[in-house]
Specification:
138 residues; alpha/beta; Spore Coat Polysaccharide Biosynthesis Protein SpsA, Chain A; four-stranded parallel beta sheet; two-stranded antiparallel sheet
Length: 138
């Protein structure tokens, strides 16, 4: 089996990070390393991620200031040990067979990269709606 490193960049995602991590722990594919990169968080994203992964054998939670989403992803990639990297947003929840499907596409079907569908958390407050709109327009 190929080791898969799932890198979860997170900036102030305390509200969603535990459920996101749980969706990765509950995968049908077992050889998975989970790396959460808490980037410049002012909430408890880091602490919640540490607790959520405390019993998961192949995990890391790192924090720091990486300056941008790409820098945060790269910080996770640098410490990863996987043969395959998956970047998973902290506010998304993976289908239980997501990693298995990615590995199948890459290893069995010869793809170089794969995009998967995830369920995105719907905004519930005006502030979350504003953040969603800001992200949409860049």
């Amino acid at each position: 089996m190929k080791l898969v490193s799932v890198i979860v960049p997170a900036h102030n995602e305390a509200r969603f990070i535990e459920k996101s991590i749980q969706s990765l722990i509950n995968q049908t594919y077992n050889d998975v390393e989970i790396i959460v990169v808490a980037d410049n968080c002012t909430d408890d994203t880091y602490g919640i991620a540490k607790v959520a992964l405390k019993d998961y054998p192949f995990s890391k939670v790192i924090k720091g200031k990486h300056g941008c989403a790409a820098g945060t992803r790269n910080a996770g990639a640098v410490v990863s040990k996987g043969d395959i990297l998956i970047f998973h947003d902290a506010d998304c929840f993976a289908d239980e067979s997501m990693i298995e499907n990615v590995v199948k596409r890459i290893c069995d079907d010869g793809f170089d990269g794969v995009a998967t569908k995830t369920d995105v958390v719907k905004p519930t407050t005006l502030l979350e709606e504003a953040i969603k709109a800001e992200r949409a327009i860049g």
